[in-house]
Specification:
By secondary structure, this protein is α+β, with helices and mostly antiparallel strands. The chain has nine helices and eleven strands. Strands 3-2-1-6-5-4 form a six-stranded antiparallel beta sheet.
């Protein structure tokens, strides 16, 4: 990070990105592990090889998984027939011409075992769901379909909102390809390069395990902290624009802490009460926590 001025909120950014990535992993990693187990179930290969004749067997399997683990939905899409099986049966065949089915054809052509994406639920278009899509392979390693679970992202979005309010920052969940898949703000659906100020830094953010950046932006400076979540194939990006009025308080704080007593010439805290009131007012306005440490260094009892 560039040397120079320091701001009261700067140390929170790395901690914020780390805490948020932990929250996202805790929310979605168990789902990914379960989807992986589903993909390895020998029932799938046998059922597909038998011609997918007993559709109720697949629907029953998905319902049992969903009920046992509390997922929002469960699904299997067959590469052989293109049928999309959900809890209520076959929704519709997938089609290369349908933009909503692009995820399946990415899975078909991918070397990666799985993909996590956030999208409208085919079974319920009003619901936004985080899907964990695992490739299902036969004994010879051939692709026979994609299976996985979906979790309603409203709770995850609420958690991101809470962090944004607490730290006064913007939070983006981004794929390694640079697509913003979830943000409580207006950034969802855009690419990282389209987020104001990030175009020159997008490649670094997407390709490094963690980044910490500071650069001029607007009337002040923008602080960026990012961290990759390898288990999900995502990057979490935390953005915070400095508040010039808050930044101006730090030099004042240093000046007041070093002010001298007019009578004795010794260091004291004559003006700290006034400054402290200003800091409290600003912390309340920004809905941030404020901590103060006082040291008594004259060894008096």
């Amino acid at each position: 990070m560039r040397a120079g001025r320091r701001f009261p909120f700067l140390p929170t950014l790395p901690l914020t990105a780390q805490a948020l990535s932990g929250e996202v992993e805790q929310y979605l990693t168990p789902q990914a592990l379960l989807s992986s187990s589903m993909a390895r179930n020998t029932f799938l290969e046998s059922w597909v090889a038998a011609g997918e004749r007993d559709q109720s067997a697949m629907v029953g399997y998905l319902r049992n998984i969903q009920a046992e683990h509390g997922a929002t939905t469960a699904f299997f899409v067959s590469d052989r027939t293109g049928r999309s099986y959900h809890l209520d049966g076959v929704i519709k065949p997938v089609s290369p011409s349908d933009p909503n089915d692009r995820w399946f054809y990415r899975a078909q052509a991918s070397a990666d075992p799985f993909e996590v994406n956030i999208d409208r639920d085919t079974a319920d278009p009003n619901r936004v769901t985080a899907f964990t899509n695992f490739r299902v392979l036969d004994k010879a390693g051939g692709f026979i379909g994609s299976i996985g679970l979906g979790m309603d992202v409203r709770e995850l979005a609420r958690e991101l909102n809470r962090y944004q309010a607490r730290y006064g920052a913007r939070v983006l969940l981004v794929t390694h390809a640079g697509q913003v898949v979830l943000s409580p703000g207006a950034d969802s659906g855009v690419t990282l390069k389209e987020v104001s100020g990030l175009a020159p830094h997008a490649s670094r953010i997407l390709n490094q395990p963690a980044t910490s950046l500071q650069f001029p932006h607007g009337e002040g400076e923008l602080f960026v902290n990012s961290r990759q979540i390898p288990e999900l194939g995502w990057v979490i990006v935390v953005l915070q624009q400095n508040d010039p009025s808050t930044a101006a308080l730090l030099p004042i704080l240093a000046q007041n802490l070093l002010i001298t007593d007019k009578l004795t010439g010794l260091l004291n805290r004559t003006d700290i009460d006034t400054l402290f009131a200003r800091l409290v007012k600003d912390a309340l306005r920004r809905q941030e926590r404020l901590a103060v440490i006082l040291f008594d260094i004259d060894f008096s009892s």
